[in-house]
């Protein structure tokens, strides 16, 4: 569906006549950013539309019908079968449709399609409930996709999937008609206004009802997981055409209607859980344990073959013993659940007996410790991207999901393994939800002519194996999508497939909704529009564009996301080596990329915390910033690193002068002066922020002795040494002074690094891609601390979390002797040191009221949120971390250069803070710039956590 730019302009005008212009994205950078989902396919939409209301959807339908344009709804884009991409109109639901309401004291929950699955569960935590579906992508996928694909997952089984937990649904047909199952009159109106659709559904239902053989086939299929084609069980479970259609929408992949909202029945979320990894010498041995664990009531029993374990065995946190298990080994990841610890103990004893009776190569034991459980689950959840991370350059990553009768799981798994090996996929991995007979396999594929033949033969033989030999399901939980659309008829037979076609025609007579998905008459559609993942930059080459990173990105609602940054950069790289027209488009993309992807990236690395293979897109952005830096900028950056004492003094003086001038002129006039200066200097002078603190009047840090008796070497950050109080912030001491007083009260002696005024952790250079000055500063800091700690004898305390994180990762730039010395140093972030070393030595008086804490990105990456909250709770009557906490987007100077980034990143957290009614007396974090950002967002004064500890520990 290629279109000229003139066509694009006409199309844009057609839609902007009906919708606000900011909801209609037509630029190449926007369209290419949405061209990829988590599948092996890629299509570039002609327009991306971000509707806000049902009337917007009706307008989209009206115009799409008139222009005969395909319409595809996309929520999170984590779809693995190509359901959320199109070369027509892509409707992005993830941006605006995030409403939710807990109902019936937690027994049900109302959700719009843009709500992330994990967030829905978070809303249900106070009620001890959760939604039934639990796909591995739950932290990223959204309700729209969960319902439209009838997602299930690791603990869900069949009984708790979206189909079986659906209570109510509201939807819009492509003719614009709206129906809500909560409306008692909806059934009558549906039959009257949709006569063809209602008649088709009833006739199909009656034909099934009169054919016992068909009933048996359908019932048998849905005792197991099955998302191939439309959900035919709806025709057996319901008699009324409206009810049939409501449940037929579950798993329909956006091909029949737009789902506006759903109410899902919830399921208990057991309070007691224990997780263990059992590695058996053989596949048969592992599968033999599935039924005993299933009978025990295990919530999850995940099978992983040896190749699966190999793909993740080198990742951080994975038990080292995994690397030495035999080539024939297979593993089970088992989770036991109970509503109390007492009942869990009974299950643990029985599980211990099961494992004791068999030969194992490794057994982790069952643990109730959340961090241990999370590390084990990271093995399972990261299998798909992990294979993609080690793939050969230029190959695509393919994941398929199939289901077999449980009694056939051992021979079927062996047959799948043999099938992969016989077709040249020896490196393919097999894993899955063993207690449901649900297997996944992941392979990498080069789609040249021989590769296409190879893949075609594999799928043809797979269809025969699954359908003919085992009467299994070609798609268990990922939806039919594009890759199994040609084979729906193979699984269901010609008659039932023909009925599905009639349902599609009756619901969508113009064929505008997600054409080519589920119903597709092209027998080779699974071999077309293949996504290519070439090597472009080492920072991102491992990315398979799964989208797990997007929910934690601070710019996700402003410009773009880590996944889209990568998708666009790959396309820029590809186009740059093409014909003149391609190079012209590459230049256009590159010009837009600067603001959309580089300037508005916080480079905070939060994307790596959600990425199964730890890709930090911020590293790529820093690299690109460095490439764009001029020789003059590089020289200035180097001079600043070599003369940092002057820079620090200058910063203190500038902040003090600005504070005085703001007082003299008044904030409104001063802000206008600075904004004008910002424009005239083209951004060299940053924008003003009313919460910027003044400069510290003096630097009083106490002892600078290098006495060998010092318990700790205290490294105050340059921010702590330069920035004083904000307007309205009343603390008797600076951050550095407060730290020293608290250490004194705890009876801990301290020293300071030599040459401190010339030292900085290096983050300002690292974040802008100035690698050489950053390396020099890291070397200077390491040399100073090597001397001050007496070659690592004393630990190093850093009072600002981003600085701690940077210093803990100097190994990325240091070499030789500097690297050896750095490895001998022990760094403590302020949160960890206060929690573990200082508070146990203090006599604390809890401060009145509640305090709210903001974990910085570095605090989260260091996995110290619980310790930050623990400090606050020991020092106050109550403490909270907002549920919607995340990166504030201030990112050192981003909040001054692109303040809209902070505004967007903090919107939900600020709204939550505003809603707290529990007598909040203070707001605390562990980075001065983040504190400025959060103060700007909320209007509340944020201070360092050390001030709370100082207050609570006063004699």
How would you portray this structure in words?
- The protein is an alpha/beta fold.
- Among the domains are: 272-478, 3-Layer(aba) Sandwich (Vanillyl-alcohol Oxidase, Chain A, domain 3), CATH 3.40.462.40; 534-627, no CATH class; 639-826, no CATH class; 836-952, 3-Layer(aba) Sandwich (Rossmann fold).
- The protein contains 42 helices and 25 strands.
- It has a 7-stranded antiparallel sheet, sandwiched between helices. Strands 5, 6, 7, 8, 9 and 10 form a 6-stranded antiparallel sheet that branches. It has a 4-stranded mixed sheet with strand order 1-2-4-3, with helices on one face.
- A hairpin with a 5-residue loop joins strand 8 (166-172) and strand 9 (178-180).
- The longest helix has 22 residues, at 644-665.
Quick structural summary:
With 955 residues, the protein is an alpha/beta fold.
């Amino acid at each position: 569906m290629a279109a000229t730019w003139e066509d694009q302009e006409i199309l844009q005008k057609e839609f902007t006549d009906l919708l606000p212009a900011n909801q209609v994205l037509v630029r190449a950078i926007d369209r290419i950013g949405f061209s990829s989902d988590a599948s092996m396919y890629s299509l570039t939409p002609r327009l991306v539309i971000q509707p806000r209301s049902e009337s917007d959807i009706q307008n989209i339908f009206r115009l799409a019908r008139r222009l005969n344009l395909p319409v595809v709804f996309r929520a999170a884009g984590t779809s693995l079968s190509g359901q959320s991409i199109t070369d027509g109109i892509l409707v992005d639901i993830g941006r605006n449709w995030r409403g939710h309401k807990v109902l019936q004291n937690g027994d049900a929950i109302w959700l719009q399609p843009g709500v992330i699955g994990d967030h829905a569960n978070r809303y249900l935590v106070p009620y001890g409930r959760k939604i039934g579906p639990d796909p591995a992508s739950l932290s990223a996928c959204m309700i729209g996709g969960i319902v439209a694909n009838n997602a299930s997952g690791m603990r869900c089984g069949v009984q708790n999937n979206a189909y079986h937990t659906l209570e109510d649904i509201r939807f819009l047909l492509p003719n614009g008609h709206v129906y809500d199952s909560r409306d008692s009159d909806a059934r009558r109106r549906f039959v009257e206004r949709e006569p063809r659709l209602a008649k088709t559904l009833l006739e199909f239902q009656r034909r099934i009802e009169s054919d016992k053989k068909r009933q048996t086939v359908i019932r048998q299929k849905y005792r197991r997981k099955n998302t191939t084609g439309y959900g035919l069980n709806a025709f057996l479970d319901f008699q009324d055409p409206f009810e049939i259609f409501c449940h037929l929408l579950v798993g329909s992949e956006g091909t029949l209607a737009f789902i506006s909202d759903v109410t899902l029945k919830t399921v208990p979320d057991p309070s007691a859980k224990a997780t263990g990894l059992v590695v058996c010498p053989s596949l048969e041995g592992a599968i033999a344990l599935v039924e005993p664990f299933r009978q025990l009531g295990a919530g999850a029993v995940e099978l992983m073959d040896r190749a699966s374990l190999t793909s993740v065995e080198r990742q951080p946190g994975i038990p080292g013993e995994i690397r030495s298990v035999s080539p024939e080994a297979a593993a089970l990841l088992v989770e036991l659940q109970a509503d109390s610890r007492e009942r869990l103990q009974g299950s643990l004893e029985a599980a211990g007996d099961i494992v004791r009776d068999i030969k194992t190569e490794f057994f982790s034991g069952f643990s109730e410790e959340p961090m241990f459980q999370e590390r084990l689950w990271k093995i399972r959840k990261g299998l798909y991207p992990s294979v993609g991370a080690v793939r050969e350059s230029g190959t695509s990553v393919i994941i398929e999901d199939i289901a077999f009768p449980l009694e056939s799981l051992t021979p079927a798994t062996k047959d799948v393994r043999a099938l992969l090996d016989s077709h040249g996929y020896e490196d393919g991995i097999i894993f899955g939800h063993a207690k449901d007979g649900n297997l996944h396999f992941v392979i990498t594929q080069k789609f040249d002519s021989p590769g296409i033949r190879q893949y075609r033969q594999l799928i043809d033989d797979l269809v025969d194996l699954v359908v003919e030999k085992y009467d299994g399901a070609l798609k268990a939980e990922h939806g039919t999508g594009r890759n199994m659309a040609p084979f729906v008829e193979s699984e269901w037979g010609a008659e039932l497939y023909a009925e599905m076609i009639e349902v599609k025609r009756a619901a969508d007579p113009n064929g505008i909704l997600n054409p080519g998905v589920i119903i597709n008459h092209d027998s080779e559609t699974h071999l077309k529009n293949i996504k290519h993942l070439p090597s472009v930059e080492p920072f991102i080459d491992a990315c398979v564009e799964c989208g797990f990173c997007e929910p934690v990105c601070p710019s996700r609602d402003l410009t773009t996301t880590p996944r889209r940054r990568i998708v666009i950069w790959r396309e820029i790289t590809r186009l740059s080596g093409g014909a003149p027209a391609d190079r012209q488009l590459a230049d256009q993309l590159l010009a837009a990329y600067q603001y959309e992807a580089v300037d508005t990236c916080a480079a905070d690395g939060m994307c790596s915390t959600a990425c199964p293979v730890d890709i930090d897109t911020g590293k790529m952005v820093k690299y690109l910033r460095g490439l764009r830096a001029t020789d003059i900028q590089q020289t200035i950056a180097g001079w600043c690193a070599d003369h940092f004492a002057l820079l620090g003094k200058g910063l203190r003086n500038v902040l003090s002068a600005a504070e005085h001038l703001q007082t003299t002129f008044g904030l409104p006039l001063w802000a206008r002066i600075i904004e004008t200066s910002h424009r005239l200097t083209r951004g060299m002078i940053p924008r003003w922020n009313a919460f910027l603190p003044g400069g510290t009047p003096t630097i009083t840090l106490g002892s600078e002795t290098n006495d060998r008796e010092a318990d700790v070497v205290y490294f105050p950050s340059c921010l702590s040494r330069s920035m004083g109080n904000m307007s309205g912030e009343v603390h008797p001491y600076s951050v550095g002074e407060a730290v020293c007083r608290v250490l004194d009260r705890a009876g801990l002696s301290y020293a300071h690094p030599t040459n401190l005024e010339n030292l900085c952790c290096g983050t300002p250079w690292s974040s802008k891609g100035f690698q050489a000055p950053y390396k020099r500063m890291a070397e200077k800091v390491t040399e100073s601390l090597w001397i001050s700690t007496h070659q690592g004898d004393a630990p190093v305390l850093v009072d600002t979390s981003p600085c701690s994180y940077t210093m803990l990762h100097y190994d990325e730039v240091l070499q030789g002797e500097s690297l050896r010395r750095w490895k001998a140093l022990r760094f403590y972030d302020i949160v960890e040191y206060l929690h573990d070393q200082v508070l146990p030595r203090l006599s604390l008086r809890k401060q009145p009221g509640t305090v709210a804490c903001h974990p910085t990105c570095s605090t989260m990456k260091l996995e110290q949120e619980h310790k930050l909250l623990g400090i606050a709770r020991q020092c106050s009557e109550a403490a909270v971390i907002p549920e919607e906490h995340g990166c504030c987007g201030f990112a050192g100077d981003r909040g001054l250069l692109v303040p809209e980034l902070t505004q967007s990143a903090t919107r939900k957290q600020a709204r939550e803070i505003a809603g707290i009614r529990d007598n909040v007396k203070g707001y605390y974090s562990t980075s001065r710039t983040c504190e400025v950002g959060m103060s700007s967002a909320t209007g509340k004064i944020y201070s360092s956590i050390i001030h709370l500890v100082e207050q609570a520990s006063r004699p």
